[in-house]
Design a protein that fits this description.
The two termini are 26 Å apart. This protein has five helices and no strands. The protein has 122 residues and is mainly α. It has one domain. Helix 4 runs antiparallel to helix 5.
Length: 122
């Protein structure tokens, strides 16, 4: 798979995920649908954010660096996109459960940051 086809597939998948999220917002009532509506809401938002953050991270790394081997940025960009999406979804879930405080979000972001530092050191 070439880099261009990977980026095109990621862009297409991200746009489909965001379209799915918008459809969930418009047509599913979370009060009447129960757990399935919430799962659809959070999963489509997670997939959309994963693609968005991955593409943004890859673009920034490509723009900042003059490295000729740009395929090496894909795995780290995907991993960082995953962590950022997990942070957003985790904070939204905590807010939905009414357990979000500033120190909870700080501990959550700090733990995800420590995980990323562990993977960077490997």
């Amino acid at each position: 798979m070439t880099l261009k086809s990977y980026l095109n597939a990621m862009t297409t998948a991200t746009s489909f995920a965001f379209m799915g999220w918008i459809l969930v917002i418009l047509y599913i009532d979370p009060v009447s649908s129960g757990l399935m509506g919430l799962i659809l809401f959070y999963s489509t938002l997670f997939l959309g954010l994963l693609g968005f953050f991955t593409l943004i991270s890859f673009s920034l790394k490509r723009w900042i660096s003059n490295n000729e081997v740009i395929f090496s940025y894909i795995t780290s960009s995907f991993r960082q996109g995953f962590w950022l999406s997990l942070i957003v979804i985790g904070i939204l879930v905590m807010q939905g459960a009414r357990i979000l405080n500033w120190w909870d979000s700080l501990l959550f972001v700090g733990s995800i940051s420590l995980l990323e530092l562990y993977f960077i050191s490997e």
